[in-house]
Design brief:
potassium channel, mainly alpha
Length: 192
C-alpha cells in the first residue's frame, strides 16, 4: 500500500485538531487589555498544545519520508496515534477553563504520555516492516529524547496533584526538547 493516503489523512486530522483548539478561544467582551485577562489561561494552554501538535506533525512528516510501504499494522498504529492527538483539544480546553487545576493537568499529561507511546508504537511498526538496516532505524539511533519524554511526562502526571505548576514545567520541558529540530532523519536521507 502507498503511504500517500496515510500522510494526507494524518495531515487532515492534525489540521482539524488545530482548528478545533483555536475555535475554543472566544473573543473577549471588552475592548481593553484587561478584558484579555480571563482568556489568558486558555491562550497559554492553546500555545502549548499548538506546539505539541506541530511537533507531532513535523516528526510524523519526517518519519513518513523513511516509509517505502505501508502495512495494516502501520495503518492501525497511525490511527492509534491520531486518536490520542484528537483528545488534545479537549484537555487543552479543560486546563485553560480551570486555570491549570490539578486533575485537568493530570489528564493533560496522561494524553501527552499516551500520544508518545502511540508514536513509539507507530515507529516500531515501521521498523518491523523495514528492518534494522532501514533509514529510520539508522536515524533513530539511541533515541534519547524518545526515552526521556515518557519519564518527564510521568513526573508531571505524578506531581500535578500536588504542584500543577511543576507539572506544567515538565510538559513545557518536553515540548522544548522536541522543538529543537531533530535532524537525524534529514541527515540520513540527505547527507549534504
Amino acid at each position: 500500500m502507498n503511504k500517500t493516503r496515510l500522510e494526507a489523512f494524518s495531515d487532515g486530522v492534525l489540521a482539524i485538531i488545530i482548528t478545533i483548539m483555536v475555535l475554543e478561544l472566544k473573543v473577549p467582551e471588552g475592548m481593553d487589555l484587561e478584558s484579555l485577562r480571563p482568556i489568558f489561561p486558555k491562550f497559554l494552554s492553546y500555545i502549548l498544545s499548538f506546539i505539541y501538535v506541530g511537533i507531532y506533525w513535523n516528526n510524523h512528516h519526517h518519519m513518513m519520508h523513511t516509509v517505502k510501504q505501508v502495512t495494516g499494522g502501520i495503518l492501525w498504529a497511525n490511527l492509534h496515534l491520531l486518536f490520542w492527538l484528537s483528545l488534545v483539544p479537549f484537555v487543552t480546553a479543560w486546563i485553560g477553563e480551570n486555570n491549570f487545576a490539578p486533575f485537568p493537568m493530570i489528564l493533560y499529561g496522561v494524553i501527552l504520555l499516551m500520544a508518545a507511546i502511540a508514536y513509539f508504537i507507530l515507529q516500531s511498526q515501521i521498523l518491523k516492516k523495514h528492518g534494522p538496516d532501514s533509514v529510520l532505524s539508522k536515524a533513530i539511533g539511541k533515541d534519547l529524547k524518545g526515552k526521556i519524554s515518557p519519564v518527564l511526562y510521568s513526573i508531571g502526571i505524578i506531581s500535578a496533584n500536588f504542584n500543577p505548576l511543576f507539572a506544567g514545567i515538565m510538559y513545557i520541558l518536553v515540548a522544548l526538547m522536541w522543538l529543537i529540530p531533530d535532524k537525524r532523519i534529514e541527515k540520513i536521507i540527505d547527507p549534504e
